[in-house]
């Protein structure tokens, strides 16, 4: 007999898309191991929407349930006697209500020494010898390095000749922050490519492996490639990036950026200061508000030069490099209601010191980067900033300043799929239409 899980739906009805996404993620994560019982104060409305039984919410302390998942934090104060309690938001992302992670929440918590030394909390950055590592639990499976892989990527080193591996590199936009696993563009891309190959009778199959993590600049992506792909040798590597290099490039050390094209995340200045007890040295990272100390030209040059360097590294290892320039909220002039709200409200809540950078400088730098990429790159590439500019108020593509919503992830997956089918398959000379392409 399976243990019971109480899924307490929101008192206020979310949109149909939000509630079905959250319900789907509860089923994906716990459906095999638990008997799921749904509750709501508005049970009848939710029952009509989900087409499954939903019970009226009754007072309980939760002790009869192994797990309680609630859409509202207040519910958990009444259901706190369950063995484990979670909140889930309208994006479908779980948050385990505990001070620290455990092996049930993240099975690789003690897999290696730097996981053991980490804070062992979600949404944290921590030290490794090869750069920082991040851990964002609650949106889907993670591997021992915090990447969004539900399998051991090394199993693909010896693979069928018809299997093509696609490695995804990038920062939080490539990672899919605030999107559950099945909604991210790498997952969608794999499905689209395999469906297209099956429809045309091709023996080719594709598997997407992601090595993206929040915050990474292109130099760090290159290190990731060296660390994880030297034996894997993916046939295709997608570099989906731009935001981190351009934001940090504007505020990082001018000597390193302009003379050596070394862009870095400015918060690493704080780490160096703490490590070496150099509190008297002024930091670019602690200015409030943050101030641009580098002109757009050197910032863009450093970004494009490092992206070309990564391309050479990938090609030297036998792979094909797909250069993607990520979109941002200002890529769309005609915004949906949710996008307009994101622009006016929560846009700076995590980085208030960067408000002027985001508002005043970054739209211009993005535009100049698009122009420079068209001039510098003499090979096919994808400018998603321009791709997203084609969409109007009816397309809800972006959650906040830079992170794409599930619909935006769908668009990105479709564009990459069309590109790969056109340029990187050995059969058929023309691209095969994939349902949903414009």
Could you walk me through the main structural features you see in this protein, from its secondary elements to its overall organization?
This protein has 438 residues and is an alpha/beta fold. The chain folds into two domains: 4-96; 139-423, Rossmann fold, CATH 3.40.50.1110. Helix content is 37%, strand content 14%. The chain has helices spanning 16-30, 43-50, 73-76, 113-116, 172-175, 185-199, 218-229, 243-251, 254-260, 267-276, 296-316, 337-344, 355-376, 384-388, 406-423, and strands at residues 4-8, 35-40, 55-56, 67-70, 84-88, 94-96, 124-128, 131-135, 163-170, 205-210, 236-241, 320-325, 382-383. Strands 3-2-1-4-5-6 form a six-stranded mixed sheet. It is globular and about 65 Å long.
Q: What characteristics describe this protein?
A:
single chain; 438 residues; alpha/beta; Rossmann fold; 6-stranded mixed beta sheet; 5-stranded parallel beta sheet; globular; disordered C terminus
């Amino acid at each position: 007999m399976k243990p019971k899980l109480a899924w307490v739906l929101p008192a206020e009805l979310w949109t149909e898309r939000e509630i079905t996404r959250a319900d789907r993620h509860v089923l994906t994560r716990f459906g095999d191991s638990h008997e799921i019982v749904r509750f709501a104060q508005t049970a009848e409305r939710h029952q009509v929407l989900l087409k499954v039984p939903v019970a009226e919410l009754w007072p309980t302390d939760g002790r009869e349930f192994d797990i309680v998942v609630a859409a509202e934090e207040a519910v958990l104060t009444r259901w706190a006697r369950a063995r484990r309690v979670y909140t889930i938001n309208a994006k479908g992302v779980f948050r385990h209500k505990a001070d620290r992670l455990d092996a049930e929440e993240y099975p690789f918590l003690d897999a290696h020494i730097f996981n053991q030394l980490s804070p062992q909390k979600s949404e944290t950055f921590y030290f490794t010898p090869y750069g920082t590592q991040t851990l964002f639990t609650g949106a889907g499976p993670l591997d021992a390095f915090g990447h969004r892989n539900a399998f051991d990527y090394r199993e693909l080193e010896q693979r069928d000749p018809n299997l093509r591996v696609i490695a995804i590199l990038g920062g939080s936009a490539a990672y899919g922050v605030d999107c559950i696993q099945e909604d991210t563009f790498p997952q969608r891309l794999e499905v689209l490519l395999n469906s297209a190959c099956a429809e045309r009778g091709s023996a080719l199959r594709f598997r997407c492996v992601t090595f993206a993590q929040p915050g990474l600049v292109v130099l760090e992506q290159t290190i990731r490639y060296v660390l994880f792909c030297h034996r894997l040798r993916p046939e295709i590597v997608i570099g989906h990036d731009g935001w981190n290099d351009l934001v940090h490039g504007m505020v990082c050390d001018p000597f390193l950026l302009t003379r050596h094209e070394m862009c870095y995340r400015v918060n690493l200045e704080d780490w160096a200061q703490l490590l070496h007890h150099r509190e008297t040295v002024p930091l670019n990272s602690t200015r409030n508000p943050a101030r641009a100390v580098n002109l757009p030209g050197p910032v863009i040059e450093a970004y494009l030069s490092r992206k070309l360097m990564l391309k050479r590294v990938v090609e030297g290892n036998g792979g094909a490099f797909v250069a993607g320039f990520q979109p941002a909220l200002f890529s769309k002039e005609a915004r949906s209601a949710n996008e307009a709200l994101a622009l006016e409200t929560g846009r700076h809540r995590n980085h208030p010191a960067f408000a002027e950078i985001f508002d005043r400088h970054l739209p211009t730098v993005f535009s100049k980067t698009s122009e420079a990429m068209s001039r510098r790159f003499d090979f096919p590439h994808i400018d998603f900033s321009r791709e997203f500019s084609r969409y109007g108020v009816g397309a809800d593509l972006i959650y906040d300043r830079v992170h794409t919503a599930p619909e935006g992830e769908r668009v990105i997956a479709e564009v990459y799929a069309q590109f790969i089918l056109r340029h990187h398959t050995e059969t058929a000379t023309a691209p095969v239409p994939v349902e949903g392409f414009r």
